[in-house]
Automatic annotation (TrEMBL):
Domain NAD-dependent epimerase/dehydratase: 3-222
Organism name: Aeromonas bivalvium
Domain DUF1731: 250-295
A Pfam cross-reference name: Epimerase
Entry-linked Gene3D superfamilies: NAD(P)-binding Rossmann-like Domain
UniProt-listed InterPro entries: DUF1731, Epimerase_deHydtase, NAD(P)-bd_dom_sf, SDR39U1
Protein name: TIGR01777 family oxidoreductase
Superkingdom of source: Bacteria
Family named by the database record: Belongs to the NAD(P)-dependent epimerase/dehydratase family. SDR39U1 subfamily.
Amino acid sequence: MKILITGGTGFIGRKLVAHLKVQHQVVVLSRQGSLAYQLLGHDVQVLDSLDRLDDLNDIDAVINLAGEPIAQGRWNLARKQQLCDSRWLLTEQLVDLIKLSSNPPKVLLSASAIGWYGRQDDRPLDEGCDHPSQEFTHQLCHRWESLALAASSEQTRVCILRIGLVLGLDGGALPKMLPPYRVGFGGPMGEGGQVVSWIHIQDLVRAWLYLLEHEECRGIYNGTAPTPVSNREFSQQLARALKRPHLLHIPAWALRLMMGEAADLVLTGQRVLPRRLQEAGFHFTFPALSQAFVNLLERPQPSK
Ligand SMILES: NC(=O)c1ccc[n+]([C@@H]2O[C@H](COP(=O)([O-])OP(=O)(O)OC[C@H]3O[C@@H](n4cnc5c(N)ncnc54)[C@H](OP(=O)(O)O)[C@@H]3O)[C@@H](O)[C@H]2O)c1
């Protein structure tokens, strides 16, 4: 297949491209020019702008991951607009190109996030949830998903993956969490009862490949492991995996001071279950957090 991927230079995209390019021809949309080749290898094609394309007639599949990092910077109005525009405008442009194609791609896989659910209590949520909390992350994800779903037609199926906290060592939140834990200063955030719905990067990449390969899959899927945990338990397990004490607690006010409204990302949570992925026959390699941490933190890491 010839696959067009946006956000292919990012944490998730780099891992996914490494798998895809073994079997497929990969075109990566990137603003980074030659750096993209350094990151991904010269066996991919790098495209600097969708404006160069009139349609996607020669593309078989599109994977849409691009977006400004959500946890970076304070969420003032300008930053919120950047977070939205970097996702919405690109998705809209991709969908326009799909619609202009006489031979459109067979599938559009588009990222979303469990922020769609907004802050929730402890109750389990699956893709059928009809009571999202109407806050910024919901508004961002809701429009992002709606724009992508507009590409759906008889020729093109659309799958949306609502991704949870991705655990890996080459990017995302985990490498930033490790330094305080390594010196014994790790601890739960806020009151610690908020639920963390996480996924191992390997399982996330496998989930994207599963949705790509299984033609019967379409619609919304949660990209989270089947065993979400409280923030307190996440912190305990992380300290245990690193064989460090787990003594401190990071108060909510300190996080609000540092991060402003973006502190919601860590101070609130939601218990998200991957019902549709599992019903579709997908099996997790790392269904439990302890297994994910053993794999990531207790074994020697292969060189990149
Ligand atoms: N990592 C997680 O825990 C997590 C959780 C939930 C959802 N997600 C979603 O999954 C997607 C991929 O996540 P990631 O962790 O791989 O992200 P990442 O490492 O920050 O990479 C995102 C990619 O998006 C592109 N990008 C960034 N800003 C852009 C802009 N203004 N315009 C166009 N492209 C832009 C960049 O590509 P170039 O610089 O090459 O153009 C970058 O490589 C994101 O949309 C994210 O919201 C991630």
